[in-house]
Design a protein that fits this description.
By secondary structure, the chain is α+β, with helices and mostly antiparallel strands. The protein is built from twelve helices and four strands, in the order E-H-E-H-E-E-H-H-H-H-H-H-H-H-H-H. Strand 1, helix 1 and strand 2 form a beta-alpha-beta unit. The radius of gyration is 18 Å and the shape is globular. The protein binds glutathione.
C-alpha cells in the first residue's frame, strides 16, 4: 500500500526542498503545509525536537525530522533507489552528503549578512567549499552530468537547493565564484535543470527568497527591486 506524505515547511527552506526533491524524483505525491516561522503550531513543536523544518508526516501518524534522515528513509522505502547500489560508492556519497551543512553555511552566511563588510568576508569563504566539491567531482570517475554519472541520486538532491541559493545570490549581487570551478558549475546547471529540482519549490521561489532578505532585514535586501516584491506576493 502506498503511504501518504505531508511535508511541513517554511516557504523558502532549502532543507525541506531536499526532501521534496527526493519525493519528486521518485514521483511520489505529497502535501506540503507551510507553517508560520513566528507562530509554530503545537502539533509541530511536539514532533520537531529542534523546532526546525522539515518534518515528514507519514500516513498522518508517524513523523520524522532532519532532512538527511528523511531522505534516507524515503530511499529505503520507496522505489526507485536513488543511492548507488555499490556500498563503496554509497559510503562516498554519504561522506559528501555529510559536508552539505558546511557548504550550505558558506552560502547562507553570505546571503544573510548584516552589512557590506560581513558580506565581503562571508563571500570570500565560498571558494573553499566550492573547491572541495569541484575536486570531488574531478575524482568521481565519471563524466556526469550528476554526481554518480547519468543517474540522479540522493547526493544530488542534497546539494541542489544550496547551488540554487548560490545562483539566486549571485544573480542579485554577483560574487563570481562558481566560474572558477567549471565542474561544479556544470553540475549546478544539470541539477537546476532536473525536473525534480524544478518542481521542488513554490513557482516564484526566487522572488520569495529575495523578499525574505528584506523581511529579515539583511544587507543584500537593498538590491531587491520593487517589481520582485510584487512577484513574491503573486
Ligand atoms: N539539520 C536540519 C536543518 C533544518 C533547518 O535548519 N531548517 C531551518 C529552516 S530552513 C529551520 O527550521 N530553522 C529553525 C528556525 O528558523 O528557527 C535538517 O537537515 O533538516
Amino acid at each position: 500500500m502506498t503511504s501518504r506524505y505531508m511535508l511541513c515547511s517554511f516557504k523558502t527552506c532549502p532543507w525541506v526542498q531536499r526532501a521534496a526533491i527526493v519525493l519528486r524524483a521518485k514521483e511520489v505525491p505529497y502535501d506540503i503545509t507551510y507553517i508560520d516561522r513566528d507562530h509554530r503550531p503545537d502539533w509541530f513543536l511536539k514532533v520537531s525536537p529542534h523546532s526546525k523544518v522539515p518534518v515528514l508526516v507519514i500516513d498522518g501518524k508517524d513523523a520524522l525530522f532532519e532532512s538527511s534522515a528523511i531522505a534516507e528513509y524515503l530511499d529505503e522505502t520507496v522505489a526507485p533507489r536513488l543511492h548507488p547500489a555499490d556500498p563503496l560508492a554509497r559510503a562516498r556519497n554519504r561522506a559528501w552528503t555529510d559536508y552539505v551543512p558546511d557548504f550550505a553555511e558558506a552560502i547562507s552566511g553570505t546571503a544573510y549578512s548584516n552589512s557590506e563588510e560581513e558580506f565581503a568576508k562571508a563571500a570570500g569563504g565560498i571558494a573553499k567549499p566550492f573547491g572541495k566539491l569541484d575536486e570531488a567531482l574531478a575524482q568521481r570517475g565519471n563524466a556526469g552530468p550528476y554526481f554518480n554519472g547519468p543517474k540522479f541520486s540522493l547526493v544530488d538532491a542534497a546539494y541542489a537547493p544550496f547551488l540554487q541559493r548560490y545562483t539566486f545570490l549571485d544573480r542579485l549581487k554577483p560574487v563570481g565564484v562558481i566560474e572558477k570551478f567549471p565542474r561544479l558549475a556544470a553540475w549546478r546547471d544539470a541539477l537546476l535543470a532536473h525536473p525534480a529540482v524544478k518542481a521542488s519549490t513554490v513557482a516564484n521561489i526566487e522572488a520569495v527568497w529575495q523578499e525574505n532578505l528584506i523581511l529579515r532585514k539583511r544587507w543584500l535586501g537593498k538590491f531587491v527591486s520593487q517589481s520582485v516584491l510584487g512577484a513574491a506576493a503573486a
